[in-house]
Amino acid sequence: MKKTRFIYLSVLLLGITCNVTLAQGVATGAPKLRHIIPLGGNAWVNLPDTITDNGLINWSNPKAVTSIYFRVSVIQDLQLSLRLRVPQGQSTIKVTAGDNSITKKINNTAFDTVAIGKIHITKAGYVKVDLTGISKTGAAYADVSDLIIQSEQADADLAYVKQGSSFHFGRRGPSVHLNFTIPADKKTNVKWFYNEIIVPKGLDVVGSYFMADGFGEGYFGMQVNSPTERRVLFSVWSPFNTEDPKSIPDSMRIKMLKKGEGVHSGEFGNEGSGGQSYMHFPWVAGKAYAFLLSAEPDSVKKTTVFTAYFKDVAAGKWLLVASFNRPQKATYLTHLYSFVENFEPDNGDKVRKALFTNQWIADSGNNWEEITQAIYTGDATANANFRKDYAGGTEGNKFYLQNGGFFSDYMKLKAPLTRQPVGAKPVIDISKLPVK
Q: How far apart are CA 105 and CA 335, in angstroms?
């Protein structure tokens, strides 16, 4: 009988202390339950290697580290295997858990399931498995399509992005929202909505959209578009339901009425369609920024003008972003909300967070009232149990939203939240707001 070599180690996986047993060869005892975790939706690798929908294909960079994530809730042993092939020659790869690792020689030219080893989980939370290449005689170390885990006990709360779902949205990660609670006597007469955002230092990840003023017909917030570009974005949906803005009839198009200096305007699609505006603005993590939105309904023409203003709170100067005319409906602001999302799948393994504070609404008579309650919710990725790295709550007089990065202390969705009041009504001279 072939001798099996066991290596015992204690490892810290994303803040989860685990006792880990890695076995080279086939472990004894046949696990009863099996989960196939596709790398296409659950793995990240540094460039120039990439993760495709088919997994880690043509893995050739000797400096590449591929990290695969899944979340568990049951304390038990897990047998790990990889489904892979070596297109040519022989390779030696390394599977790393914390500071400890095991090497494995592979040379199967067709996709096959290769046993890696066994880990023992002692706490619920995210588990990370790292792959690195040691040597290869061919052009690539391997093509790896899946991580396979086997267990004795069922885990009803096991979370990973499933085969057959959207890997694009799965790798982007869950979005989380604050749905603000508006007093019943104000719901149909909200003309103004004021909100402030602070993004903590180090959590302003590329691909993040920190959205402050969401409403029934659009949204308004700030983004990190690249390492050197940041935007303040304001969009209004067309009443015509389409993903192609070019197909919108003229009678249902969003019309630009005015915009601030240097503001770009155009149309958007692929998530509904409508009018979009943005300005480049070098906003800084750790500082507070204010967002002010207004609605001017015209019941005769059945249209509404939505206007967005932005300012650096410390600087104290309002900037006009844009003003759009939306046809087919006269309405004040409804369904007020904020969200944090990631629109860059390759950065879905990084944590982002925003603090939201000092929310105020005003009616058509400019009577202001502070909003201190919200319902915390998530998107389809969160609700499908594919990703559970999301959180929302309060920190004193601020709400917060956090997502991405595979942190383990997630917060259950649909929770009512109440922050402490700030009590400082925004001082806004409406007559002096910029018109260009």
A: 57
> Which pLDDT score is estimated for 243?
67
Residue 431's alpha-carbon distances to 37, 213, 341, 434, in angstroms, are: 58, 21, 34, 9
pLDDT in tens, 196-232: 999 999 999 999 999 999 999 999 999 999 999 999 9
Which stretch of 1-10, 83-92, 246-255 has the lowest confidence by average pLDDT? 1-10
Q: In this structure, which topology does domain 5-164 adopt according to CATH?
A: Jelly Rolls (2.60.120)
The single residue listed with the structure tokens 């015209």 is 298
**Angle in degrees, CA 99, 105, 108, rounded to 5:** 135
Tokens of 235: 């969009």
Q: Check residue 269 and give its pLDDT.
A: 54
Beta-bridge partner residues of 390? 403
Strand partners, 226: 229
Token pair of 25 as six digits: 């060869």
Q: Would you say 183 and 342 are in contact if contact means Cβ atoms under 8 Å apart?
A: no
Per residue in 107-133, pLDDT (tens digit) is 999 999 999 988 888 889 999 999 999
Burial grade of 259 (CB within 10 A; 0-12, 13-18, 19 or more): buried
Q: Is the peptide bond before 297 cis (omega within 30 degrees of 0)?
A: no
Q: Please give the Cα distance from 318 to 307 (Å, whole number).
A: 13
The answer to whether 186 touches 361, Cβ cutoff 8 Å, is yes
Which pLDDT belongs to residue 17?
35
Residue boundaries of the structural domains of the chain: 5-164, 171-432
Specify whether the CB–CB gap between 409 and 389 falls below 8 A. Answer: no
Tell me, yes or no, if the pTM score tops 0.85: yes
Span between the terminal Cα atoms of the chain, in Å: 82
Is the model's pLDDT at 293 over the cut of 60? yes
The pLDDT value recorded for residue 23 is 40
